[in-house]
Amino acid sequence: MFSKNKALKSIFDSSIDELCKSEGLSKETIIQGIEDGTMVLLGNPNHKNVTPTLIGQPAKVKINANIGTSPFKNDREKEMKKLDTAWKAGAHAVMDLSTAGDLDGIRTDMLNSCPLPLGTVPIYAMAQQYVARDEDPAGFSIDELFAEVEKEAEQGVDFMTLHCGLTRRGAEWATEEGERLLGIVSRGGSILARWMRDHDAENPLLTNYDRLLEICLKHNVTLSLGDGLRPGAGEDAGDAAQWEEVLMLGKLAKRAHEYGVQAMIEGPGHVPMHLVESQIRGIKAATYNAPLYVLGPLVTDSAPGYDHIAGAIGGAIAVMNGVDFLCYLTPAEHLTLPEIDDVWNGVKASLVAAQCGEVGLGRKDAVQRDKEISIARKELDWDRIAELAIDPALACARRKDHKDEKECAMCGKFCAVRMLSE
Amino acid sequence: MFSKNKALKSIFDSSIDELCKSEGLSKETIIQGIEDGTMVLLGNPNHKNVTPTLIGQPAKVKINANIGTSPFKNDREKEMKKLDTAWKAGAHAVMDLSTAGDLDGIRTDMLNSCPLPLGTVPIYAMAQQYVARDEDPAGFSIDELFAEVEKEAEQGVDFMTLHCGLTRRGAEWATEEGERLLGIVSRGGSILARWMRDHDAENPLLTNYDRLLEICLKHNVTLSLGDGLRPGAGEDAGDAAQWEEVLMLGKLAKRAHEYGVQAMIEGPGHVPMHLVESQIRGIKAATYNAPLYVLGPLVTDSAPGYDHIAGAIGGAIAVMNGVDFLCYLTPAEHLTLPEIDDVWNGVKASLVAAQCGEVGLGRKDAVQRDKEISIARKELDWDRIAELAIDPALACARRKDHKDEKECAMCGKFCAVRMLSE
């Protein structure tokens, strides 16, 4: 991997000491993980000041926050504030999913103002140009698409969602009458399915995969192999269309790896609880244990407004089963574009899920944190509790009315911790 | 059971038709569950207008909301508003955990104004009287304690947490140097442990258990056998002290059942994810499959401010493993007494957990709900989505800025659902 990917080597060399420290892993473990393709190191040398970020257990589970404009909510300033919020809340990466406004400008601003690895979905920029001219969103040519990918790689984008494993067969299976409740719910997937239908041709990202690898290799762009056919309803989870794409993603991850390009796999999506374990372990097995990046999983469809909670339930179980990277869901999911506080709450909910999963896995730092906050609780040491909490500011704020009291206001003099120590 | 407990029989007879309908269960299934002690029917005939409520899978998982005054936040009006909020949010039962003010008055107001089954912890009223006089909270006599239990039963309290299974041995194990990080965190448990220490005697609720059963039988008060030694830190989960009490609770549930008194078991508490399944299944097995009522479980200690989320993660997994009754955790847990919106958010988070668990278990109504909301999503039928959502008002409110648009503001013209249907 390192011998083929010089850009990766330079990022690795500049960050390995810091990585060993922050991840609590040996240099050998990290090298082996990257060589095996079970870890990826996000970082495009063109992204100045990027914090190289390691994804793949036993490295710590990472959180991604999706931000970006939409046609109904196109406020560039606000998206920059969301970027700042995601960063401060503790996200480890951000994806710019903008589909309205000056996409190049927004992307460049984000790259310039934030050290978190930035991901994009280049096909959105394609479709947006056509939509803006009131043309077919799938009207773009293959050359246009690759020009966009190359431009974004040169701008410094660290990882890109590209739905290379979506085949015509998969798209047909997903949209056949009587099959899925919800067909294709991935925006990128639906644009590509439309492209294949309109052009009567196979997926251009699949047929021109080596062209993509060449661009990615040059700039150490990590491929985030997109799940265009992820289930959009619990009822659709685990069907043939989903697995057809997973199998392709595994083959493509292997080919990327052989080429010297880092790749991770994107996963579901809407999955009921009894299927999360088999989905995660099944996808991992079929994709050569490449890092797995999931959206949720969302373990019920009935919680709009609380999808960050339903997603945290699925996410924590997913982490226990080997997931490496959690894409947040915010309270706005399925309803509207997230506001600033949705971004904060989405990141925090994902951090809670990761912490719960890592404690369950016995990861040293997570277990130690739980232990130390419990000791602080015994000592009623509120400053230390806040310091160790996933949201220190919130923990302080909730106690503001009685911050001079030793006990908390739930129990007051009935504090069980004190009842026996008096 | 029915032949011994006349109060239960009267509640059963008045509600069985409605119960069969709301639970989707046959009369025979419900009778068998109650006879076997795997279901309990909450409802004290002295609680006028109570909605008899069935607890025990395959009956639907129920949610309890804890409310009540505390010494630092003693606002009777606000607690009545919380009661109303819990009810409107969809709680199935409420516990009045008041420890400040006119406890008899608060309890009577709550019983008069709400048809949800009401639970209490009678030992709080005992301790509160002594604390109010600046005396030892464990100064009360056995007769005083039973007089309180009898009075509350006559007032109409439907279920009572009584820590009958807490033994001197268990309390010693939990508080021994070098054992637990957090000793005893149950308020009732710590009061009783103090009583045992101060009086140099065994737990009066254990030594006088038949006296308790006699009162409960008369009014169909369901015993909620309290877990005074539940772990208060993930690190403490599953230790000898916890299991010593669980074993006693099982024996006591059996004795209650033989006496004609309904009983459920209270469970943890702080439990890391890898232990939730073994805890829940282990407790069920050791307690003759009596209905299990858990607080969380809270699968990390590090999320103060987000304990409703950490609790929903544990709760959903617990439901998948057989838990019957979830006590909510609010965003205020471990920090302060919940405010009105905390009550709302706590109930909703628990409802999300129950829905996720029930979908995972394949429960017909939960699966159907997920399916119908997914169909509504495909049709972009926002009214129907809101109608089926766990929080219809919230789902509507989040769309208010663009309620005349067909698509949601996340994707707008990029709506994947529409991309292929055009």
Structure overview:
The structure is a homodimer of 422-residue chains. Chain A is α/β, with parallel strands linked by helices. Chain A folds into two domains: 6-362, Alpha-Beta Barrel (TIM Barrel); 365-420, no CATH class. In chain A, 51% of the residues lie in helices and 9% in strands. Chain A has helices at residues 6-23, 27-36, 76-89, 103-113, 122-132, 142-155, 168-175, 187-199, 204-207, 209-219, 240-259, 273-286, 307-320, 340-360, 364-378, 382-388, 392-397, 416-419, and strands at residues 40-42, 53-55, 62-67, 93-96, 118-120, 159-162, 222-225, 263-267, 292-295, 325-327. In chain A, the strands form two sheets. The first copy, chain A, has an eight-stranded parallel barrel with strand order 3-4-5-6-7-8-9-10, surrounded by six helices. In chain A, helix 12 links the parallel strand 8 and strand 9. The mean pLDDT of chain A is 95. The interface between A and B is large, with 104 and 105 residues.
Query: H/E order of the elements of chain A?
Result: HHEEEHEHEHHEHHHHEHEHEHEHHHHH
* Widest sheet: strand ordering of chain A: 3-4-5-6-7-8-9-10
- Under CATH, the topology of the largest domain in chain A can be stated as TIM Barrel
What is the annotated CATH architecture of the largest domain in chain A?
A: Alpha-Beta Barrel
Structural class of chain A: alpha/beta
The overall pLDDT of chain A, averaged over residues, is 95
Give the N-to-C terminal Cα separation of chain A: 62 Å
Strand content of chain A: 5-15%
CATH level-1 class of the largest domain in chain A: Alpha Beta
Overall shape of chain A: it is globular
C-alpha Rg of chain A (nearest Å): 22 Å
The number of domains of chain A: 2
Greatest interface by residues involved: A-B, 104 and 105 residues
Amount of helix of chain A? 40-55%
Enumerate the spans of chain A where pLDDT stays under 50 for 5 or more consecutive residues: none
Task: Report the oligomer.
Answer: homodimer
DSSP strand tally of chain A? 10
The CATH superfamily of the largest domain in chain A is Radical SAM ThiC family, central domain
Main β-sheet of chain A, in a few words?
A: 8 strands, parallel, barrel
GO molecular function (chains A, B): 4 iron, 4 sulfur cluster binding; metal ion binding; phosphomethylpyrimidine synthase activity
EC number (chains A, B): 4.1.99.17
Cofactor (chains A, B): [4Fe-4S] cluster
InterPro entries (chains A, B): ThiC/Bza_core_dom, ThiC/BzaA/B
